[in-house]
Design goal:
heterodimer, A: 279 residues, alpha/beta, Rossmann fold, six-stranded mixed β-sheet, four-stranded antiparallel β-sheet, 36% helix, B: 259 residues, mainly alpha, MetI-like fold, 2 domains, 83% helix
Chain lengths: 279, 259
Amino acid sequence: MSEEDFVTLENVAVTYGRKAETSVTALDETNLRIGRGDFIALVGPSGCGKSTILKLVGGLIPASRGYVYVAGRELGAEPVRIGIAFQNPTMLPWLKIRDNVMLPLKIVPPFRAEYRAKKDSEFKDRADALLAQVGLRGFGDKYPWQLSGGMLQRASLCRALVHDPQLLLLDEPFGALDQFTREELWAIMQELWIARKPTVILVTHDLREAGYLANRIAVMRARPGRIIDDSVVPFPRPRSMDMIYDPSFVTLTQRLRELIVEVRGDNVPQTRATVEAAA
Amino acid sequence: MMNSEFGRKLASAAFIIGLFVVWEALCLLFHVSDVILPRPSQIFVTLWDKFPALWPHTLQTLYTTMVGFVGGVVIGIMIGIIIGWSKLAYDVAYPLLVGFSSIPKVAVVPIFVLYFGSGTVPAVLTALIMSIFPVVVNVATGLATTEPELEDVMKALKATKFDILWNVGLPRAMPYFFASLKVAITLAFVGSVISETVASNRGIGNMMMIASASFDVPLVYAGLFILAVLGVALYAIFSLVEGRVTGWAHRKTEFAMGA
């Protein structure tokens, strides 16, 4: 789907546990290609290996079998700038929000070498500009506990983006937020992506979120974790919240929902009405 | 706000003074001999009268305690970081450390005396080994309780193990560390006094031994009183430092305003 693959998973499997009888296959023989600057969402029931793919690509866990390539090279060979955000904002409580946001600049080359010299000038402005973009203007000097959950999640997004990552990994970053904050952050996320075009992998439970944000949605099943469907979201950008109520969008999410309900496999009774209501 | 805090302090002070008054009254009422339990007034008179003789002992105990405490804290931080840093070191050293800490420290004093003679050195060393353990445990705990997600954030940034330790592990361990200092300083006192009672010719512990041998019970209590005051004072100092340095962990409003 893209002229240049940025992330490639080749026959990748991940097994947790050493003993054969107790080991769990989190991810089974998976192939996935993600183009440079693409936005892909991974959806599926719990335990389907969505987060495992994210961690593989982020270099946080090794593959038991197969190869993971990022930017055309095997993972670890080439330093790729990666930004990551989780459901839990994980701010460092002893640092002001601005310093939390600047944390990657302190760690990641080439910024690392200049951190001392620029942390009160260029880098500070950079963090403040990003905070302003997500609606946190003037909150740089606050401490994390002075902010609400939604505000912390915004700051967490800033931290994931401040070092201009080529690859952005999002593990349910909006999962713990209320509906309105979530929708607002979707719009902000879309703006940031359009402006910077990093390659994004978004793990989510929310099909509307996946449909609104992503170019591609991969549906996964559990035990063993596997990609069973990979569809393109054909809606033009920038997308608006109204799009969510567009009949073709509803058809898309409904189809994905049925796929997931089908593979959940634990026989939860699903009436036609609840499927429609949720879609 | 200010009023209620002042009120609490007043109540606390009144309670302590009240305790001494009741003690005094009961001793007078039941004609308790000062060989069994001296009255507070007798203890204070003794403190006042014998102050010139008590002062060098006090300094000696304070000196051995502080040297031992500082040494113990430095060694404790190092061991704590190693244990918190490396899984292998944790597996190897932790059982050893627990075993070591469960030895009654008074039992090692004769060994120190054997090696270093009596006096200052065994007192310092006993204070030192007493104060190591709480520091080690707390520093290691602080390092080990880093949220896995935060570690993932750091790893995704290709942070080195040292980066994680320096930027996340150590700051996060600070509240634990300062909490351990309060415990360690009181234990250091226990250590040096134990050593002084067994093998020294100076220090509060030694003075109390001599006083009790000559049935000068008010002087024994005077020694206890000095130890209590020193202990409280150092505890208070470290509490203050703790509040200053790790205010973020206690979410104080003053800290938030940039104090």
